[in-house]
Model the fold of this input.
Amino acid sequence: EAQVTQNPRYLITVTGKKLTVTCSQNMNHEYMSWYRQDPGLGLRQIYYSMNVEVTDKGDVPEGYKVSRKEKRNFPLILESPSPNQTSLYFCASSPGLAGEWNEQFFGPGTRLTVL
Amino acid sequence: AQSVAQPEDQVNVAEGNPLTVKCTYSVSGNPYLFWYVQYPNRGLQFLLKYITGDNLVKGSYGFEAEFNKSQTSFHLKKPSALVSDSALYFCAVRSDRGSTLGRLYFGRGTQLTVWP
Done:
């Protein structure tokens, strides 16, 4: 089944404890992206990647890191999480280098709480 | 700067009535426009997109959207609403040029409630 998977689905952690949210897609898509969803703010793009070893900042990159060492995986790293990073996170992928005319396929989401 | 506005946080409509969820956008270059739907505790699902061509695009679940370049709008419509259409709807836009080529901009979302 074609899909985007994220792990973990739920995470409660404490301020300053490094964490990684994994994202993997099995559709051979070039483009991948991370978003956070907050009430009243919609989805905001954190980082995106047009291909392996190519990443770029979105609207809200502060406090996050990403890497794209292989096509299928695009992990989101929070080196020192803070309470304002409590949010619902979505990973997405789409075909094409920029995927500009292609719809994105979204993962199920990761609900992160930072205490 | 690129942006999307969904002027209504909530839209309420009776089952069987037509529905409209509004979206306006601002983008440099030509827009690629999308509608996504989010059901409770789920990820986003693609509904439809406008890239070029016919201003009226048809999508999943009987939804359609009309692109209006002069009004920079891309309103989502359905002739007859169903209770199962109740969900959170997001409009999104990308530009076809410039340094923001890989960026996707979402609106804040509109909660659609269809009552029986």
